[in-house]
Design brief:
Layout: H1 9-26, H2 42-47, E1 53-57, E2 60-66, E3 69-78, E4 81-90, H3 95-110, H4 115-131, H5 134-149, H6 152-170, H7 180-191, H8 195-214, H9 237-240, H10 254-261, H11 267-278, H12 282-286, E5 293-294, E6 299-302, E7 313-316, H13 319-329, H14 351-359, H15 369-381, H16 386-392, H17 400-406, H18 411-425
Antiparallel strand pairs: 1-2, 2-3, 3-4, 5-6, 6-7
């Protein structure tokens, strides 16, 4: 799809300048520089009878069709012809709004353009923009770059990567409604498994939106930029390369999974429930003890020696998690919340995985994978920033300066996040 470029570039800048200049000349003065006493007031409009045709000056009229109702119009001559264009209904279009529109269209007339033709052209462009798809712009960008690239393989890579990953998601939405969340849907599934491809796709999407903005087809913030945008939703490249990703359950399936899990009355099942609700690691849950729980503040304090990062970690406990721990600890005398059946020792390292394989044999998931499920859900649904999510997973921030600056574990923000997570998990 090709789009008329009328709304972009020098024409727009010059038009905006004339608009502002004319607005300054117009505001409250006549041609002699004196206050224009013929200009309408709201009081005069309200006092005028039905059918009255009120003149505000310079061709701006209000025709009253009923009490406090009317139609604005602009009458002018151009190329020797008398023209009239509607400016909208009164009072939906107020007196000040009508004057602003009038100034805008009179400025075009002063430049020799027919305001009616100009508005029709703008409406056509708006319709074209609404119909414009991401793939249309990508195609035009690639076409404009062909001469400079001179490499058929590079051109093909650009086209195929955008068609494969971006267009199926972005073409389904009007261009101006696309957000960073849509870009995340494209990148997240391949961010870890095809990281270099994902980075190239992100850069190419960013350039397509930059091209669209330059051409006047897109007037919002570029949703594919990395700095202060996608960096809050996706792990840094240096971190992704070191991460081993465990098979995980899709977050949309978790509520039904958890509902079935609650029907299994075993220690392993209760331990897995705590692990899911707190997004904790297997080792942390297995070694959860009575004296680690601050019942008053509803906080689980995990000592540094149990943590991967070797620092104490506070976990905010929601009501269902508190209830789960209370019921579990009341059922035995062991120090551990989840002791091995008939023992005072913590639950076996394989107990929760064995439960998954026995009770959910058709699902290729691991215990550790539920942390990935939480992370994907948080990134896709909550709008919480990257730091809050990472602290909830007890991850060490890669940026040492940033980590030192924060000095807090964001407990209050994490509590709100975990309450939202609890509500989602327990959705019937």
């Amino acid at each position: 799809m090709r789009v008329h470029p009328m709304s972009s570039g020098v024409t727009y800048v010059w038009g905006h300048f004339v608009d502002q200049l004319w607005a300054g000349l117009w505001a409250g003065t006549n041609r002699k520089g004196k206050k224009d006493m013929t200009k309408l007031t709201v009081k005069e409009i309200k006092a005028a009878p039905k059918g009255a045709r009120l003149h505000d000056g310079h061709g701006l009229y209000l025709t009253l069709t009923a009490a406090d109702r009317g139609k604005w119009s602009y009458r002018f001559r151009i190329n020797g012809l008398s023209r009239e264009m509607g400016l909208g209904p009164y009072p939906k279009v107020s007196l000040s709004d009508a004057r602003a529109l009038h100034i805008k269209y009179q400025a075009h007339k002063l430049q020799g353009r027919d305001p009616c033709a100009y508005r029709i052209e703008k409406e056509k462009i708006a319709i074209q923009r609404a119909r414009l798809k991401f793939s249309d712009i990508a195609e035009q960008l690639i076409e404009s770059k062909k001469a400079g690239w001179q490499n058929e393989k590079h051109i093909k890579q650009w086209s195929q990567s955008l068609q494969t990953y971006a267009s199926p998601i972005l073409d389904a939405k009007p261009l101006n409604t696309i957000t960073s969340r849509d870009i995340l849907k494209i990148l997240q599934p391949i961010w870890a498994t095809k990281h270099e491809t994902a980075r190239r796709v992100q850069q190419r999407i960013k350039k397509v939106f930059g091209f669209a903005k330059t051409m006047g087809w897109y007037d919002h913030y570029n949703p594919a930029v990395w700095d202060d945008n996608l960096e809050h939703l996706l792990a840094p490249s240096r971190q992704v390369k070191r991460v081993f990703h465990h098979p995980s359950l899709d977050w949309s399936e978790l509520p039904s999974f958890f509902k079935k899990l609650k029907t299994i009355e075993t220690i392993a099942s209760k331990a897995l429930q705590l692990l899911i609700l707190t997004a904790s690691r297997t080792h942390e849950v297995r070694h959860c003890e009575r004296d680690q729980i601050n019942w008053r503040d509803k906080v689980w304090i995990i000592p540094a020696e149990l943590m991967k990062a070797r620092r104490t970690h506070r976990v905010p406990l929601c009501q269902s998690t508190v209830t789960l721990l209370e019921s579990t600890l009341m059922g035995h005398n062991a120090d551990y919340a989840f002791p091995r059946p008939g023992s005072m020792h913590p639950l076996s390292n394989m107990a929760m995985l064995t439960l998954l394989k026995r009770e959910f044999p058709r699902k290729s998931i691991t215990v550790h994978g539920f942390r990935s499920t939480f992370r994907e859900w948080a990134a896709n649904n909550c709008g919480y920033n990257h730091d809050t999510i990472e602290f909830s997973l007890a991850h060490k921030l890669p940026d040492r300066t940033k980590g030192a600056y924060l000095r807090s574990d964001l407990l209050d923000k994490r509590r709100i996040l975990m309450e939202d997570w609890e509500k989602f998990v327990l959705t019937n």
